[in-house]
Each structure stands twice: as C-alpha cells, then as structure tokens.
Write a structure and sequence with these properties.
Chain lengths: ~120, ~110
C-alpha cells in the first residue's frame, strides 16, 4: 500500500502565476482534505472533497480551488499566487463515517515556494 | 486568542528523559484530541487519539486530556534520539470527517 502520494514534491513559482498540486489517496479511502502548513506553523484546513464535491471549506480565499476525480484522487489549484502562499501543502485521506479522523493519513506534502 | 496554543520550543532533552508536551485550547466544543509526530520534510503521523477527558497509554507514550482546564498533554518515557521531531496537537468537535485544528507544533530534540 503506497499510502497517500502527492506530486510534485517541490515547486517554485513566481507571484501571479497559477499552480496545480495533485494527490492520490490511500487505497480504500474516498475523502480527501487539503491543509496548508506555513513555516513554523501547524497545518490549516483548506477544504475537503467527497463524492467529487467540496463538502467543507476553511478560511481561504476563492483563489484556492479544488477538484476530486471519480477515482478519488484530487487536485488543489491556487490562482494569482502571492508570496504568502509559500508553504507545505498537505493532502490527507480518510474514509467516511464515525471515527474517520482516527484513520486520517497524511501525504508528505508539496513544498511550494513563491518568488 | 488562537483556538489552540502550543509552545513551539525548541525543546532539547538527554536520551532516556521523560518529555512533557502540552497544548491549551479555548473552544469547549472540542471533544477529540490527537497528537501527531512530524519528521522533517514529511507529513504528520498520528501517534495518539483520545476522546473527552482521561488518560490513554500506548507503549512509551501517554496522552492526557483535562477538559475542565482545556489542557492536553503528551508524555514520552525513555525518550530516544529517534523521537526527535515536531509534535503537533490537533482537535476536533466530532469524530467524523471534521476539520482538525492544529497547534503550532513543538520541536523536540533528544540528544544521545
């Protein structure tokens, strides 16, 4: 079992550009959540996808959008990049139902640097 | 005031020491409490998951929750150099797929 896989591992962009990050959930998982972890901070919830729909969203602007595909994989898109978007972007997968948070698995993340 | 407060450290201890890591929180709706370990350039890995107040032990790790004080702790006994990592507390109101609210993390170094 490969666990949660994210690509790319590192990315460098310039201000104003757009970026797409990708995530494949752990086998058997159908729910994908995205978190942003700035340097020296804990992860912050961006949004969650289930059944190809955004189910919950954190306090992030509309520049952050996502998608979930029928095979449960997911993409995170960020438009009009700002310097403050530089962070480690973490994907986490889980199943639905009770105690899902106990079975939440994180990927190793994509390190995004905005210059 | 942030919902979850955690001293970022860094904390440096000798091998074999007992380590105490703590978080405080302000949202009384939190009922599920987690501790994650994060190695450099890796994603967080769940160490302990507890519900409501009380203690939970797993090997060298003990998690404590005091809801009356809004205070949670993680104790590591007989600490090893391999325990050197950042430890993140996280909380949620429900056990299902609800967003986790994380502390900043405490960076721990265990010196051989």
């Amino acid at each position: 079992d490969a666990g949660v896989t994210q690509s790319p591992t590192h990315l460098i962009k310039t201000r104003g550009q757009q970026v797409t990050l990708r995530c494949s959930p752990k086998s058997g998982h159908d729910t994908v959540s995205w978190y942003q972890q700035a340097l020296g901070q804990g992860p912050q919830f961006i949004f969650q996808y289930y059944e190809e729909e955004e189910r919950q969203r954190g306090n992030f602007p509309d520049r952050f959008s996502g998608h979930q595909f029928p095979n449960y994989s997911s993409e995170l898109n960020v438009n009009a990049l700002l310097l403050g978007d530089s962070a480690l972007y973490l994907c986490a997968s889980s199943t639905t139902g009770g105690r899902s948070n106990e079975k939440l698995f994180f990927g190793s993340g994509t390190q995004l640097s905005v210059l | 005031q942030k919902e979850v407060e955690q001293d970022p450290g860094p904390l440096s201890v000798p091998e074999g020491a007992i380590v105490s890591l703590n978080c405080t929180y302000s949202n009384s709706a939190f009922q599920y409490f987690m501790w994650y370990r994060q190695y450099s350039r890796k994603g967080p890995e769940l160490l302990m998951y507890t519900y409501s107040s009380g203690n939970k032990e797993d090997g060298r790790f003990t998690a404590q929750v005091d809801k009356s004080s809004k205070y949670i702790s993680l104790f590591i006994r007989d600490s090893q150099p391999s325990d050197s990592a950042t430890y993140l507390c996280a909380m949620s109101s429900y056990s299902g797929n609800t967003p986790l609210v994380f502390g900043k993390g405490t960076r721990l170094s265990v010196i051989a």
